[in-house]
From TrEMBL:
Protein name per UniProt: Ribonuclease
GO cellular component labels: plasma membrane
Keyword RNA-binding: no
Primary location group: membrane
Assigned keywords, A-Z: Cell membrane, Membrane, Transmembrane, Transmembrane helix
Its membrane topology: Multi-pass membrane protein
Transmembrane segment boundaries: 27-51, 87-107, 127-146, 153-170, 176-193, 205-226
Protein location: Cell membrane
Amino acid sequence: MMIDLTFIREMARRFQEDEIPRLSAELAYYFLLSLFPFLIFLITLLAYLPIPHEDLLSVIRQYAPKEAIHLVEANVHRVMDEQNGRLLSLSIIGAIWSASNGMNAIVRAFNRAYDVVENRPFLVARGMSVLLTLGMIVVIIVALVLPVFGKMIGLFLFSAFGFSATFLTIWNAMRWVISSLILFAVFTTLYYFAPNKKLRCANVVRGAIFATIGWIITSLAFSYYVNHFAHYAAMYGSLGGMIILMVWFYLSGMIIVLGGEMNAIFDCEREGRKR
């Protein structure tokens, strides 16, 4: 019990000293700037794959509040209609660069958690942010492909072996497990590569588990609250969807930073040093 209390006190101390609310607000800002270029790039890329762009938006739709989703969908459809579903290569490069800004902010937050200075050359650090962004794009595409083919496999097994409808229901519910595993892989990759510190993969697992569970619970709880109780539109008018999106990004950023702080605390314990 003493260990738990010590950990909680250390986390609370870091919460104040590392200005986690401010870092979360910074991440929310960069997430907002990165969101639409990132989605536009993904949708442009999906045009060459047998995956409808609605499947991409449906992934976000699982967690985000309805008003935020309406805002995202309206802007993405408008931009894609104006550009006829195609982006020039220069625009794609700009989209990746813009999306990597959010990743770069995450790198700075993790470096602060580990008390390390970013001494990597600018091109190396920025290149890593771009590579992590591209890695997330690949992971998201896999996340879209797996449910599509998973549904086809489930229907094949259902018809070929005469399984009951319960089997099909359970099979379709596996998308939650797949989504959770993909989220865990994304967070593990972030916590391992982003800080300017040599780490072992096993050293970041606990923070990745916390971030995965915490982000899913927080997103679903906030979505439920907004959809059933909050009335942001009545207070902010047409800006209601934007405010909801920013609050969701703020909470998401805080969960990500807290996971990095958790890993940093365990790292201090392993090395026998105090902050």
